[in-house]
Amino acid sequence: MAFAYLAPTLLVLAGLLGYPIYQLVLISLYDYNQEQVSGNAPLNFLGLGNYQKLLSDKQFWTVLAQTVGFAAVCVAGTLLVGTALAVLATRVRAVPRTLLFLAALGAWATPAVAGSTIWLFLFDANFGLVNEVLSGIGLHGMAGFSWTYGQWTAFGLVAAQVIWCSFPFVMVTLYAGIRAIPGEVVEAAALDGASTTRIARSVILPLLRPLLLVVTIQSIIWDFKIFTQIYVMTNGGGIAGRNLVLNVYAYQQAFAASEYGLGASIGVVTTVLLLAITVVYLRVLKRSGEVL
Amino acid sequence: MKRPGRTIAEIVTVLVAAVVAFPLYWMVLAAVKPADEIVSTNPRPWTLRPTADNFVHALTVQNFGRYLLNSVLVAVLVVVAGLLLAFLAATALTRFRFRSRTTLLVMLLVVQMVPVEALTVPLFFLMKSVGDVAPAFGLNHLGSLVLVHLAFSLPFAIWMLRGFVAAVPVELEEAATLDGASRFRFLWQVLFPLVAPGLVATSVLSFIHAWNDFLFAKTFLISGSDIQTLPLALQAFVKPDQNDWGAIMAGSTLMTIPVLVFFVLVQRRLVSGLAGAVKG
Q1: DSSP string, B111-140
Q2: Relative to the CA of B24, which of A129, A212, B173, B181 has its CA 20 to 30 Å away?
């Protein structure tokens, strides 16, 4: 009886998640490109050939470094903004707090593609508000300045957009966490003569540590696999691919260059890296007492 | 208690809220601005001549109405199919004791950790072969998107629903059986309405995921412009130069509003659900 209820779900999950995972590994072991797909050339088993090619490819290492660096900036920014605003929210009355939460909810809810186009418009070289304002206050060089042209300004712009739409999760979670700390604990510390900074450092921070770890790792996982924002805002990875991150790189190798085997092997590398982060995540969850 | 600095904190809070909300305001504003005000070198943060031109242009000339329908179709099918499957699976996993139950539960957790973005290549070829058998679910058809998003959303939906099903007392089922209700009838007329609040939260999340998806739409819908979804059409709109920003912002607005409405509707549940999922 139970299996009759479970059968459709198991079928869908096995077919559309289980099988593709197996196929991902399999394809990554073959020389698989346009000729093989159309059947004009025999399948050629390479073993770890694609991985060798990848590891000896200078661009792969550049892309990996960019991915790590980009994710690091996004995570740091998200946590900094999210934490600061969560603390701020605990210190104000309901009306300003509701305004802040509504605004954050809006940023959170905005679809990635729409959010990317809005930020592109704000930072447009000719009609963007930011350039108008900057040149208006005397920075005349900013009129017509292209934010998406330079490698670092483009990365910075995408990072700002990512932080904008991901800090609300951190803010809301930490705000709930701070609110869940019993008032007596803080009062007791205050009665014992602890200063505000001392209470923050020695009482609130240790109590929030599990939650902080969880939002940090969650942010790392999200920002490591960013695809949409980079793809839309840098038009597929920037000029000559200088704004590529792993997922966009894998997509371009597979579907633009028809190097499906190589694209799959990048997918495997991404998965392994993310699974490693996830294992850490699960250990944190376990230590903080979450029951499975 | 006296709070020095609270006024400053409140002013800062309101300013931050304004900055965070500003991109959305600018989007809606540009969407209703007449064309000459958008390309003006002196952009004003308001408009005295609001117009629907940009929406009309986006919906008719750029065919956005069609893409909107496509996106709605995909998201609704994912939600409905996901509800049915997740409800049945969650019932099986809470109401029945069988040997592989724990294994299945752990597997549901583990598959949530798989970065689905890495699966584009195998899924592309899978959809290619599916298309040979059932064209409606193959490449270049919206069915392919329904299939993958159904699979991606199921593990989390089942996981969320489990708690709601478990909260319904077993006595209720016994009572229904005594009253002569068949198993089927109990399932759909008693249990299903009772877990509806849980269904709302999971449905909204599945809807948003399917609605926002760009990567898989980009991978599966490669030819034929009529089958595009909103994110795909919106991205195709953005060109390195010569953008029709009014129409793009109208399109972005059309894409953002439904999600925004859903988000506000379920925000309490969403926030407490998320906080519950990560509580320390």
Answers
A1: HTTS-GGGGHHHHHHHHHHHHHH-GGGSTT
A2: A212
